[in-house]
UniProtKB/TrEMBL annotation:
This is Phosphatidylglycerol--prolipoprotein diacylglyceryl transferase. GO terms for molecular function: phosphatidylglycerol-prolipoprotein diacylglyceryl transferase activity. The keyword Electron transport does not apply. Pathway: Protein modification; lipoprotein biosynthesis (diacylglyceryl transfer).
């Protein structure tokens, strides 16, 4: 009854084993891509634009996630530097992945001639959808779960199906399915972003900021249930603030065990609070200063050509994959055509 019901390995091809975790993450990336492509079409952005972004963004996210994790576990890696590259042994962090992906995205968007705020708004639902799906990889692997709980709480209070309850039994002890809590929270956030991006009052950058606010609120409370959090030794006043913010949850939950050897402040909780404050401040500052003059529903203008995305100077739809210098060359063609027409008229006048 208490054995692992789901095999982490989906199938094998000779000596190569394909894990469910990889399949789930691949599915998450594909769903995120499809969402971005579908929304991008409304603004004239081609599928190739987002395909290239995915090909660059995924490696950047993995590198960022690994650097983030290793940085906070440096004592375990400083004498075994080769272990830093053994990502297959586990050890990545979602916030690091976001940092890596966003740095890559900003560089890519600027190179293509677009305002990063506009494109990141389009990608925000893809991020939260990917996280929603990706958490089920933790479920299959029996990892990133919460502290101990009663089987009756899972079956009778939460009314979870048996296949989830049984999978949450780790070595004879039932645990909170934090993967499910976060997945459902992200689903609600995805619906919220879908609704907001059809409202005219939303300015450029505010869909992305809403994503950060929503995700961080959920992550703050769910992170406290986990037993594998990255942490550091913080001052007593900071611990008191974190505990105070968590206190409303004590009605239903108890915090997961945090090894004192790791620290007394969960890094993801602190970062979540800072992100919420920063996102709200960015929305206010950009509105007050006029930096958020564009609305989400406004056309996306390519800064290289001064034209709406996907449109050439002739007014024809143009593939986003076209080289920027080619687009710049195309933009001057009408002027050349006008000069030629004027010269022809002068010639006709002389001949007449």
């Amino acid at each position: 009854m208490y054995e692992l019901l789901l095999n982490p390995i989906a199938f094998s091809l000779g000596p190569i084993s394909v894990h469910w975790y990889g399949i789930i993450l691949g599915t998450a990336a594909l769903v995120g891509l499809l969402l971005a492509v579908q929304e991008g079409k409304r603004y004239g952005l081609s599928p190739d634009f987002f395909m290239d972004l995915l090909l660059l963004g995924v490696p950047s996210a993995i590198i960022g996630a690994r650097i983030y994790f290793v940085a906070f576990k440096w004592d375990e890696y400083k004498n075994n530097l080769m272990d830093v590259f053994k990502i297959w042994n586990g050890g990545i962090a979602i916030y690091g992945a976001l940092i890596g992906a966003m740095i890559c995205g900003i560089i890519y968007f600027r190179y293509k001639g677009y305002n990063p705020w506009r494109i990141m708004d389009i990608c925000a639902p893809s991020l939260i959808a990917g996280q929603m799906i990706g958490r089920w990889g933790n479920f299959v692997n029996q990892e990133a779960y919460g502290g101990p709980t009663d089987e009756s709480f899972l079956r009778e209070t939460l009314h979870l199906p048996g296949w989830i309850v049984n999978q949450m039994n780790v070595e004879g002890v039932f645990h909170h399915p934090t993967f499910l809590y976060e997945s459902l929270w992200n689903l609600a956030g995805l619906i919220l972003l879908f609704v907001l991006r059809r409202r005219y009052f939303v300015r450029a950058g505010e869909i992305l900021m809403t994503y950060f606010i929503w995700y961080s609120i959920g992550r703050f409370y769910i992170e406290a249930l986990r037993t594998d959090s990255l942490a550091f030794d913080g001052p007593a006043w900071l611990v008191s603030i974190m505990d105070g913010l968590w206190s409303p949850m004590t009605i239903v939950f108890e915090q997961g065990y945090l090894d004192p050897a790791y620290g007394n402040v969960r890094i993801s909780q602190l970062l979540a609070v800072l992100l919420i404050i920063a996102a709200i401040a960015i929305i206010i500052i950009r509105r007050v200063t006029g930096a958020a003059s564009e609305h989400y529903k406004d056309p996306i203008i390519n800064r290289r050509t001064g034209l709406p995305a996907g449109v050439s100077a002739s007014g024809d739809p143009e593939a986003e994959a076209a080289a920027p210098d080619a687009a710049e060359r195309t933009a001057v063609l009408p002027n050349e055509a006008e000069r030629k027409e004027t010269a022809d008229r002068k010639d006709e006048g002389i001949k007449g």
